[in-house]
Amino acid sequence: MKTVVSKIILSISTVIAINIMLLSNLNATSISSLQKACDDGDATGCNNLGALYAKGQGVNLDYTLAAKYFSRACDGGDAIGCRNLDILCRQDPWACK
Fold first, then answer.
1. Does the reported pTM lie above 0.85?
2. Separation of alpha carbons 29 and 36, rounded Å
3. How far is residue 61's CA from residue 42's CA, in Å, rounded to a whole number?
4. Residue 88 to residue 27: CA distance in whole angstroms
5. How confident is residue 11, by pLDDT bands cut at 50, 70 and 90?
6. What is the distance between the alpha carbons of residues 28 and 42, in angstroms, rounded to a whole number?
7. C-beta atoms surrounding 24 within 10 Å
8. Domain 2-15+28-96 has CATH 1.10.3720.10
């Protein structure tokens, strides 16, 4: 099931594109900056951070954390975050509990 979820999240992420940086240049400072932006209420930053956790890019793959950040993005008004949360929760309900 996680393979299916990974493929779906990867497809969604490809369509919406993370507009913060090239993933090949992702480093701890970039992730830290996203974390700070999310903590400061930046809904897009929360969505992008969720996408990284959903894909395991620069961080350990973690669908529960991805759901947490997609939820924060959605709560902050980011429609893409809401969509990503919906897709993730449909594919892996345990991640959204």
1. no
2. 10
3. 22
4. 25
5. low
6. 19
7. 7
8. no
